[in-house]
């Protein structure tokens, strides 16, 4: 969750290696390749994304935050960064493609180590890092990943071809304050998308329940990962 999956970094915990890898991607593969000159804008954009991983954003809001005039500029920046596989944008699931494209996006990083080292206090937000970890695992198996929001939210919806095949909620720890919300998000998503099962991934809890005709499997992330 904290150190990610780059073999060399896992082996020696060399922060200079991680910094050099990140800067090589950002400067050579993004800025030089696309002839960009405003280093500050790019640095602030990456810092904001890492500090707000898994949170919805709009291009207009991002443009205001990093101080550029046009939202299209931010859209271009994100497209350039995404082409390096450093990040991926995730859209809200909608039956209408035009609405899907217009809705707020979320961003996830290809590796937790970069997200953790780059962000402001993200290491204290274990839930966000856990969610990013789950995204990386889902991305290995599914080409199409969305988030669900319709009164209640579900973190991930996956499609294979034209068919929705699963929904996943990520919650570090289910407790009396969030249990109802997390369950309802999973149930609402499953019912709306015609699924019989929903999965809630936690750091260590395990349980199986059935509510409103939906089987809800609450699993520790490590066990789920081993079964992928």
For the largest beta-sheet, the strand count, sense and barrel status come to:
8 strands, mixed
The total count of helices amounts to 10
> Do you know the CATH architecture of the largest domain?
Orthogonal Bundle
Taken from the alpha-carbon principal axes, the silhouette is globular
How many distinct folded domains?
A: 2
Q: Low-confidence segments, ≥5 residues, pLDDT <50?
A: none
Distance between the termini: 17 Å
Would you list the SSEs in sequence order as H and E? HHHHHEHEHHEEEHEEEH
Assigned CATH superfamily of the largest domain: Winged helix-like DNA-binding domain superfamily/Winged helix DNA-binding domain
The proportion of strand residues reads 15-25%
- Could you please say which CATH topology of the largest domain applies here? Arc Repressor Mutant, subunit A
Secondary structure: number of strands:
8
Strands across the major sheet, in which order? Answer: 2-1-3-4-5-6-8-7
What do these coordinates show?
The protein folds into 2 domains: about 1-125, Winged helix-like DNA-binding domain superfamily/Winged helix DNA-binding domain (Arc Repressor Mutant, subunit A); about 140-228, no CATH class. The protein is globular, with a radius of gyration of 18 Å. Helix 3 (about 40-50) crosses helix 7 (about 110-120) and helix 4 (about 60-65) packs across helix 5. The protein contains 10 helices and 8 strands. The mean pLDDT is about 95. It is of the alpha/beta class and about 230 residues long. The longest helix has 18 residues, at about 15-30. The protein has helices at about 5-10, 15-30, 40-50, 60-65, 70-80, 95-100, 110-120, 125-140, 180-190, 220-225, and strands at about 85-90, 105-110, 145-150, 150-160, 165-170, 195-200, 205-210, 215-220. The chain has an 8-stranded mixed beta sheet with strand order 2-1-3-4-5-6-8-7, with helices on both faces.
């Amino acid at each position: 969750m904290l150190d990610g999956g780059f073999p060399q970094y896992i082996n020696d915990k060399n922060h200079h290696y991680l910094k050099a890898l990140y800067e090589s991607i950002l400067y050579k593969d993004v800025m030089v390749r696309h002839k960009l000159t405003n280093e500050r804008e790019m640095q602030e954009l990456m810092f904001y994304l890492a500090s707000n991983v898994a949170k919805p954003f709009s291009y207009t809001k991002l443009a205001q935050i990093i101080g550029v005039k046009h939202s299209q500029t931010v859209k271009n920046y994100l497209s350039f960064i995404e082409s390096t596989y450093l990040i991926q944008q995730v859209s809200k699931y909608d039956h209408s493609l035009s609405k899907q494209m217009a809705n707020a996006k979320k961003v996830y990083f290809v590796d937790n180590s970069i997200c953790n080292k780059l962000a402001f206090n993200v290491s204290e937000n274990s839930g966000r890092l856990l969610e990013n970890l789950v995204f990386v695992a889902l991305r290995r198996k599914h080409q199409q990943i969305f988030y669900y929001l319709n009164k209640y939210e579900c973190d991930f919806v996956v499609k294979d071809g034209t068919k929705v095949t699963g929904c996943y909620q990520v919650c570090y720890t289910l407790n009396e304050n969030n249990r109802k919300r997390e369950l309802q998000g999973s149930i609402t998503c499953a019912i709306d998308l015609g699924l019989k099962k929903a999965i809630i991934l936690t750091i260590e809890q395990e349980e199986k329940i059935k509510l409103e005709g939906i089987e809800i499997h609450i699993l520790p992330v490590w066990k789920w990962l081993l079964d992928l």
